Amino acid sequence: MVTRWYRAPEIMLSTSDYTKAIDIWSAGCIFAELMGRTPLFQGNHYLDQLDRIVAIMGTPKKEDLPYKVDEKTWTMLRKNDLKKVNLGDLYPNFDEVAIDLLEKMLLYNPEKRYTALQCLNHPYFNEIKNKEELIVDCKEVFDWNFDNVKYTKETLQKAIYEESLSFKALF
Q1: 30 touches 102 (CB < 8 A)
Q2: Does the structure show a pLDDT above 50 at 1?
Q3: Would 9 be classed as within a structural domain?
Q4: Helix (H) / strand (E) containing 13
Q5: Is the pLDDT of residue 100 over 90?
Q6: Per the structure, how many domains does the chain have?
Q7: DSSP designation for 50
Q8: pTM
Q9: Domain that holds residue 20
Q10: Which of 12, 18, 71, 150 falls between 20 and 30 A from 128, CA-CA?
Q11: Which CATH number do you get for residue 61?
């Protein structure tokens, strides 16, 4: 997830490996936003983003971060010893089952975060039938090479011109 407000802490702290757990964090942020009608972590820049995560999720412990964090960043994270906010207090209108799912999605440790299948099998989604049909594994790594085009002023002008010609048929 590129948008800062939905970025998993491990993306900002150290790791360059993009895992499915990162998507679960993002989905948890979106789930929280749907519950509260406002984004949960509205950071103005990445340090502010981390501060906002720590303010709600509490100060992480070393075992919460199974990836390498440099000493300067670790000191910044530990500047205040904050306790985790009870998410039920943040979202008092939602039942314990929804809060439980949210807590399992928003864990510092990506190895302990729920997977998509675990989320789908959580009691929050008990009313959904045939859940297995909703999970589709990607058989191949997606090839993003089409996105490696180096645009010049001339190629962009030509692309815009050709695109504009397609609208001519509408009039």
Answers
A1: no
A2: no
A3: yes
A4: helix 9-13
A5: yes
A6: 1
A7: H
A8: 0.76
A9: 4-134
A10: 18
A11: 1.10.510.10
